[in-house]
């Protein structure tokens, strides 16, 4: 329950952790070594214009290239890394690699696709983080406007004042700020009251039954109105079927993300996606 209500996946994860470490969690024992050996890489999942299906951005999602166990997903290590502080190193390593990748794409004339980064509370509130972000932008000649920092709501709540301060500075730098898993946190609306958020990402749980559940459609529709009224764009996460995509298109102007459009993939695969639209500007009423 500490993780919030109505989070089926998190309940399952919490139960698993109580029982015994999964093989994947056991790998977290060598997390420190993995940081030293630079074993973390960003995968990229496309964000698409729902009308044209063009790629208009991507979310960087961390993977651990484990020497013996292969490619491990965040579920195998992020919560451990958040517990022991190594998440700061992992987040920074991913951010540098993403900026380097953006520079490479630009050099190869693919243009500059905006990339979203997931940042944990500990990373964001660490003194010097905003400076680090701005240094990365300078080093790789990335415009801060091409980056989106994704935060989870409950994390912001815990982060409190220091979190809010660094959030304001991130916005002053020009980096966009998205609220991830929107709708599942503790205090959604009061957070929106004075946080400089530029994007809402509607949690996958509202999308699963969107093609056959009117209540879910009404909720999504309300979030879209709310987001646009606050000058934010709205991303819908976890779109897996054409039927869901159709239902979403009927609701309003959203950006799509989900397995239907593309799973998280290595940088080279994203680069091979035929249609990038680097100049997409989402509706912000
Ligand atoms: P998130 O930021 O909400 O990312 C979306 C997650 O949903 C990703 O899982 C993605 O692979 C998955 N997903 C996307 N589309 C679909 C779909 O259509 N169906 C289903 N079932 N799943 C879909 P992933 O890559 O395992 O990442 C899990 C979480 O780990 C992320 O959730 C994010 O909170 C965290 N994370 C990932 N990378 C980083 C990182 O570099 N730093 C930090 N601090 N957290 C990270
Ligand atoms: Mg995210
Ligand atoms: Mg999410
Ligand atoms: Mg999530």
Automatic annotation (TrEMBL):
Q: Which domain of life is it from?
A: Bacteria
Indicate the segments annotated as coiled coil, or none if absent.
none
EAL domain span: 24-278
- Which Gene Ontology molecular function entries are recorded, alphabetically? catalytic activity
Q: Which UniProt keywords apply?
A: Membrane, Transmembrane, Transmembrane helix
Q: Does the keyword DNA damage apply?
A: no
- Name of the featured protein: Diguanylate cyclase
Q: Which residues of the full protein are shown?
A: 365 to 649 of 649
């Amino acid at each position: 329950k500490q993780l919030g209500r109505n989070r089926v996946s998190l309940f399952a994860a919490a139960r698993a952790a109580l029982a015994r470490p999964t093989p994947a969690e056991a790998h977290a024992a060598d997390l420190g070594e993995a940081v030293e050996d630079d074993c973390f890489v960003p995968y990229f999942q496309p964000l698409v214009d729902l009308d044209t299906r063009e790629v208009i951005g991507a979310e960087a999602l961390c993977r651990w290239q484990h020497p013996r166990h292969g490619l491990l997903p965040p579920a195998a290590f992020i919560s451990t890394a958040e517990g022991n502080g190594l998440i700061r190193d992992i987040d920074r390593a991913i951010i540098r690699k993403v900026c380097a990748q953006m520079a490479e794409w630009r050099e190869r004339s693919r243009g500059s696709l905006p990339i979203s980064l997931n940042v944990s509370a500990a990373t964001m509130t660490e003194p010097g983080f905003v400076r680090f972000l701005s240094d990365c932008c300078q080093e790789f000649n990335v415009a801060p406007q091409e980056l989106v920092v994704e935060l989870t709501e409950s994390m912001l709540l815990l982060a409190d004042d220091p979190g809010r301060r660094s959030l304001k500075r991130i916005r002053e730098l020009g980096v966009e700020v998205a609220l991830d898993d929107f709708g599942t946190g503790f205090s959604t609306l009061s957070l929106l009251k004075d946080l400089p958020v530029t994007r809402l990402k509607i949690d996958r749980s509202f999308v699963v039954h969107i093609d056959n559940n009117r209540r879910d459609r009404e909720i999504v529709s309300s979030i879209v109105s709310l987001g646009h009224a606050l000058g934010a764009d709205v991303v819908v996460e976890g779109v897996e079927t054409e039927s869901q995509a159709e239902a979403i298109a009927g609701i309003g102007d959203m950006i799509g993300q989900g397995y239907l459009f593309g799973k998280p993939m290595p940088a080279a695969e994203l680069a091979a996606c035929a249609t990038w639209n680097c100049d997409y500007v989402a509706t912000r009423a």
